[in-house]
User: What shape does this take?
Amino acid sequence: MSRRPGLSLTEVLVALFIMGIGTIAILTLFPLGALNMAQALRDDRTTQCATQAGAYLRWYWKSQYDKPGAVPPNKALDDEKFFQALDDPASPAFTPPSTAGSLVMPIPTGDKGPSYPVVIDPMGVVARPAGGPSQLFVGDDGRGDAASATTPNQTNLARRNMNQVTTNSDPNKFALRTCTLLDGYGYNGGVPVKTGPPDKFGNPTGPVDRDMRYNWLWVIQRPNNSARYDVGATVVVFDRRAHLYAPAGSETVYAPYDTSKDPTFSNEATSVPGSSKVVFTGRIPPIQKGSWLLDATVTCLYNGAPFVPPTDPRSSPPTPDPNWPPQPHVRNASFYRVVSASTDPANTVMQVELEVPLRPDQGAGSIPIQVVHRRFVVLNGVAEVFELPDAVTTK
Assistant: This one.
């Protein structure tokens, strides 16, 4: 009896198994490709934002310094509040700096050290209560320690608007237009979507529906406060940050782990310049790989020791106080990308590793500040941070 040519069941199963593996491998490429395309689009949009925001700030800075009537060396000082805040974050909203109730001390215009950092955030200003602490300073709850967890936060990292926005007939709308990428459109059948009612031919009218997914703010700081024309700038781009609305916890402030309270974590609890690790305990920040941390440590020196305003170091100050006013000390506003974040089983301690080590403190001099004096802010929705390669300058 002759054998009939063909495949055995075993051979068929082996062939199906091999084909299944190949099919799965091919199908896996589709979601990976979609994710890569989404990330590429996001990178493209955030880069557009940084380019547009950087160009706008350079133009605006120069236009304010060169405007008619501006007098050197403090040009546009009376018109632009963020110019004032570079020297004194408390000006003009709080007690005059020369009195004991002020939050921070001004820096002389001739000081060779860095100025105070200032956040220029028109959208953040119009979204918060007028004149409130969270409008004038970054951060909207306690400073991270248990004693101040319910107190309005004062990071002393000033937030200010632009005169170009505040003097407009509709500052809310103008803040949105100034700090938003308007190049994204909503489409329907290949035609840009319009938000108005249809005309007599059935075609929609009104303004084009723009995506407005990406918006930004600036962080500026003079490297040398005596060089009044030159300022360094960073563009912070957000993904889906709401306009005219600042939800609770959108700018939560945290303090790092206090190593003096528990020596068990003494090796990991390092948030000092040169270290890439930060450890938080108690309140755990909602961060993960790819998130951003803002070092918003702004301190003063009182009686030779650093303290974090607005905490007044004097329980019963003598009159006159030879150590008053305190001297400006650390003035940080640096962003760090998180590369890993892990918590302990009880979810009470988080160890965070940064992409780059913490930079040297700005303006610290020879007196180091302690771990508990540092303040980190988690800004919700940060997509990317761009440090402008060249300082913004009028010359």
In short: The chain has one domain: 12-387.
